[in-house]
Amino acid sequence: MFQFVTMLAQSAYCWRYSPYPKALSKLLFFYMQTLLALFAQFYVQKYNSGGSKRGAKECARVGGGLASKAGADGRALGQANGHTHGDDVIAAVGKKAR
Questions:
Q1: Are 34 and 40 a contacting pair, CB within 8 Å?
Q2: How far is Cα 17 from Cα 43, in angstroms, rounded to an integer?
Q3: Which of 12, 46, 45 is closest to 31 using CA atoms?
Q4: In a designed cystine with 79, which of 22, 67, 74, 75 is the match (CB 3.0 to 4.6 A)?
Q5: Helix or strand or coil: residue 75?
Q6: What is the torsional sign of CA 6, 7, 12, 17?
Q7: Are 46 and 52 in contact, with CB atoms under 8 Å apart?
Q8: Per-residue pLDDT for the chain (98 aa), expressed as one digit of tens each?
Q9: How far is CA 15 from CA 8, 29, 35, in A?
C-alpha cells in the first residue's frame, strides 16, 4: 500500500512540476488511484471481514483429510505414484557417503 501512495505522490508531483509529458503523469495518477482503491478493497475483505478464518479452517480440513487418507494399495496419497518427496534419495545418499 505504501508503494501505491508513493507512486501516487510521484505522479502528482510530475503532473504539477515536471517537464515530463502531462498525459502520462495524469495516466499514472489515475492508475495509482485505481490500484490503491482495489488493494484497499482486497485488504478490507481479506483482513477485516472474518472470512479469512473460515477459509483457513476449510483449507485445513480439506488438506488434513487428504493427507491422512491412504491410497488403494495402502500407501499415503503422496506416495501413490512411487515418489516420496526425496526422503529415500536423502537416505541413499547418506548411506553411500559413509
A1: no
A2: 33
A3: 12
A4: 75
A5: coil
A6: positive
A7: yes
A8: 788 899 999 999 999 998 989 999 999 999 999 999 999 999 899 888 765 455 555 555 555 544 445 555 555 555 555 655 555 555 555 555 55
A9: 10, 8, 18
Query: How many other CB atoms sit within 10 Å of the CB of residue 46?
Result: 11
Give me 19's grid cell: 517537464
Distance CA 36, CA 65 (A): 38
Burial class of residue 6 (count of CB atoms within 10 Å of its CB; 0-12, 13-18, 19+):
exposed
- In which residue are the cell numbers 487418507 written? 69
Distance CA 62, CA 89 (A): 29
SS3 (DSSP) at 81: coil
